[in-house]
Design goal:
Strands 1-2-3-5-7-10 form a 6-stranded mixed beta sheet, sandwiched between helices. It has helices spanning 30-45, 76-95, 112-119, 146-154, 156-165, 171-177, 189-201, 205-217, 225-236, 240-250; strands at residues 6-11, 14-19, 51-56, 61-63, 101-105, 108-110, 122-126, 130-132, 168-170, 182-184. The chain is α/β, with parallel strands linked by helices and 260 residues long. It folds into 2 domains: 6-201, 2-enoyl-CoA Hydratase, Chain A, domain 1; 205-250. It contains 10 helices and 10 strands. The longest helix has 20 residues, at 76-95.
């Protein structure tokens, strides 16, 4: 599968998706969103892929927002359709993937870029990263989950301030806020993130998928996270990974999970 705006590679169970529009600071247009959906789906459908890393090309930007020229003349109904389609195609889609997704934020993550990073299961960042949701400075609000995921990650008050001021925070603030898990030098970001991915890959991919589902349920309207946890916990007992994991523990050896 070829892409116009992405680079896609796999290496020993790790898929790396790189948004590659450097002249536009990797801004998200509709074509790129559609390609991202295809790339994430391809990685999630590949049994050999255990972790996905998403990042931006170059040293300046992860994703410096949406391509405003595409929707500057939209009507109310077109704006609502744009948001709904974006949620379904990419942002909600990524959040609910069964394969872990790590966003490696290598520069500006603004607007839709920060929303994409927040849709990932967690984030690492370079010390040069800048993050923010500047939409209200354009007379609009974040439309790809920013008003919901940012408060979940940093708290309501900080999210209100970030969104209402349309300002940016640096990597140190993002780490303090809990928006990112780790900050490292730009040149070390991918190697550092890949090391975390390798740690994840040692564990049961089936159990990890169940954990993602249970954790997400606790943040979803109408879902009972505890009930989902009970269900997913029980399902694990019927898997080959559970049999291998418990056998390896009792036999004092490292588990070799079949991923089933």
């Amino acid at each position: 599968m070829s892409y116009s705006n992405l680079l896609y590679k796999t290496n020993d169970g790790l898929a790396t998706i790189t948004i590659n529009r450097p002249k536009k600071l990797n801004a998200l247009n509709q074509e790129t969103i559609a390609e991202l959906h295809k790339a994430f789906k391809k990685a999630d459908d590949d049994d050999a892929v255990k972790v996905i890393i998403v990042t931006g090309s170059g040293e300046k930007a992860f994703v410096a927002g949406a391509d405003i020229s595409e929707f500057a003349d939209y009507s109310v109904s077109q704006g609502q359709e744009l948001s709904a389609k974006g949620h379904a195609t990419l942002f909600d889609f990524v959040e609910h993937l069964s394969t872990p997704v790590i966003a490696a934020v290598n520069g500006f993550a603004l607007g839709g870029g920060l929303e994409l990073a927040m849709a990932a299961h967690f984030r690492t960042a370079s010390d040069t990263a800048k993050m923010g949701l500047p939409e209200v400075s354009l007379g609009v609000i974040p439309g790809y989950g920013g008003t919901q995921r940012l408060p979940e990650l940093v708290g309501k008050g900080r999210a209100m301030e970030m969104i209402m001021t349309a300002g940016m925070i640096d990597a140190t603030q993002a780490l303090q806020y809990g928006l990112v898990n780790h900050v490292t030098e730009l040149g070390e970001l991918m190697e550092f993130t890949e090391k975390i991915a390798r740690k994840i890959m040692k564990n049961s991919s089936v159990a990890i998928a169940s954990a993602i589902n249970a954790i997400n349920a606790g943040f979803e309207e109408g879902e009972n996270g505890y009930e989902t946890e009970i269900t997913e916990f029980g399902k694990c007992f019927g898997t080959a990974d559970f049999k291998e994991g418990t056998s390896a523990f009792l036999e004092k050896r490292k588990a070799n999970f079949p991923g089933q």
